[in-house]
From TrEMBL:
CDD domains, alphabetized: Aldose_epim (cd01081)
Name of the protein in its database record: Aldose epimerase
Native organism: Planctopirus hydrillae
Entry's Gene Ontology molecular function annotations: aldose 1-epimerase activity; carbohydrate binding
Gene3D superfamilies given in the database record: 2.70.98.10
Coiled coil (residue ranges): none
Length: 288
């Protein structure tokens, strides 16, 4: 694919690259600290070509549901819906927008806006959801910060269910001077959902294995694909932080309180970690 959009912050030289044809995925973000580039996101080498799995790198956008829906089935206002299942044939996964082309509606040197309307950009999927929606996303570089704004519009006349999540892959360590073993994750979470085959039962427990994300855990010791909740923080927003102790660098992901749950996923065989803010848990539409 050649339809790449690169944003540049003129003051710092920070850059971000977005692939509109694959879910409006921002798959590369390079900050510049003391004149040195810091690659923040992880993605397969062929991601820009469009040949990689759409959910395998960068920042996949998950909408109108994040993560899984059990057996791809749900009921809404008296009607049953069956969604296509994932490659394992068990559940629907990650929504409708992460693997389809988006339309670019505004663009400048350091910002870009993309839109996805179900009836326009994926009309073959209209029958899979109770109504039409419009999702608008802005990406903007502000010095060494990458800012994303989301606007969700119900363009129909009836209520529709929705949930939003992002699935960012963060690269670690953050510099050649850093070490995987010295990278720490800090989260304001205090509880987690009980899962059976990656789906929540509805029960919320204390965080298992004596993990203390508020004080910090070393990423190299974790093997996770879990949903954490009950966030404990002060102020109008919360931070989730990755710290490369040896390099003296950190990445901070800041979210507003509409994001109530956090999935932490450690991809096998990759020096990266996913910290995924969700507005609702996996399979929320089927949870009591």
């Amino acid at each position: 694919m050649t339809n790449l959009i690169q944003l540049i912050d003129q003051q710092t030289g920070a850059k971000a690259t977005i692939l509109p044809d694959m879910g409006f995925n921002c798959f590369q973000f390079t900050a510049v600290i003391d004149g040195q580039p810091v690659e923040v996101l992880d993605a397969p080498a062929d991601f820009a070509l469009g040949t990689a799995k759409p959910s395998s790198g960068g920042i996949p956008i998950l909408f109108p549901f994040p993560n899984r829906i059990r057996s791809g089935q749900f009921r809404w206002e008296g009607q049953d819906y069956q969604l296509p299942l994932n490659s394992q044939g068990k559940n629907a996964i990650h929504g409708f927008v992460y693997d389809r082309p988006w339309r670019v509606t505004a663009q400048g040197n350091d910002f870009v806006t993309g839109e996805f309307q179900l009836s326009v950009d994926a009309p073959d999927r209209m029958s899979l959801w109770p109504g039409d929606f419009l999702l608008c996303v802005d990406y903007e570089l502000i010095h060494n910060r990458l800012r994303a704004n989301f606007r969700i519009t119900n363009v129909g006349s009836k209520p529709i269910p929705w949930g939003l999540g992002t699935h960012p892959y963060f690269r670690l360590p953050l510099s050649a001077q850093g070490r995987w073993e010295d990278c720490v994750i800090e989260l304001p979470v205090t509880q987690q959902f009980e899962l059976v085959e990656s789906l929540p039962t509805g029960k919320i427990d204390a965080i298992q294995n004596e993990l203390d994300f508020q004080s910090g855990e070393y990423v190299s010791t974790l093997k996770l694909d879990d949903i954490f909740t009950s966030l404990d923080y002060d102020g109008p927003q919360f931070d989730m932080t990755l710290i490369d102790e040896a390099a003296g660098l950190q990445v901070v992901q800041t979210c507003p309180p509409i994001f109530r749950d956090v999935v932490v996923y450690t991809p096998a065989g990759r020096p990266s970690i996913c910290i995924e803010p969700y507005t609702c848990p996996t399979d929320a539409i089927n949870l009591e």
